[in-house]
Design goal:
By secondary structure, the protein is an alpha+beta fold. The chain is built from four helices and six strands, in the order H-H-H-E-E-H-E-E-E-E. It is globular, with a radius of gyration of 19 Å.
Amino acid sequence: MSNTFKSTVLLLFVAFNLSAQAPNDDAVYAMLQEGIDAFNARDAVRFANLYADNAEFIAPDGNIFHGREQIRAAHAELFTMIPKPEKSATEYVERKVTMLSADLVLLTARWKSTDSFGGQDQVSEMSFSFLAKQTNGKWQGQLTTLTPVVPMPQGK
């Protein structure tokens, strides 16, 4: 066999294995949607199960939660404190998947949420970064950061 043929076969084999291991954009967005669905259902266990045991979660207020159990406990407490909207809709303003390696993906997104309380809509925007790693065939969150989108102050 020629070296060119061997190299081509090797490259095809590597490319096939990387594509089999790495999620496509739809799979990554499905992970994000599962988190949104768990949050909207006020299911702290389901939400936390998206994360690795040693994950980090940086909340919009700057608090950092270390590990799946702290993420679960913080969200369980949050769900008792914030009212559940009568309806909620999420619209992506921007989202991007960056494959860092075959087993590491970075998802960045910005979304606009419209929540209804007492017939009144409240609109908010959030930027989001989610780092996920594949271990033993399962994708789990390693790091999440949430940042509220607020208008920059205008000069005089």
